[in-house]
Amino acid sequence: MNEEMIREAARALAARLKHLLDESLACEIRLTRDEAVLAQGFAESVADLLSPSSGGK
Question: Is residue 54 over pLDDT 60?
């Protein structure tokens, strides 16, 4: 994932999570498989960007 893709994924995931949290008082929220894959990819990309060995800084 490049930086633009990461930003788009972060915005999409944040919007989806906000929607789920705002519409429900449930203590559990379920994601679709696609949303879970997006979240996983986003989290891994963020970890890679923040890794001292990534050379991103």
Answer: no
Number of structural domains (the chain) is: 1
Angle between helices 3-23 and 33-50 (to 10 degrees): 130
This prediction's pTM: 0.56
Token digits of residue 7: 């930003």
Distances (CA, A) of 30 to 21, 34, 35, 45, 53: 11, 12, 9, 22, 34
Asked whether residue 55 is assigned to any structural domain, the reply reads no
Domain residues for 9? 3-48
